[in-house]
Amino acid sequence: MSKFSYEQKLEAVLKVKNEQMTRRGAAKLLGVSKTMVNRWVDRYEQFGEEVLRQKRRKYDGQFKIDVVEYMQAAFVLLMPYLRVPKQGRNVILLPCLQQHID
Question: What b/e sequence results for 57-75 when a residue is b if at least 16 CB atoms lie within 10 Å of its CB, and e otherwise?
Answer without folding.
Answer: eeeeeeeeeeeeeeeeeee
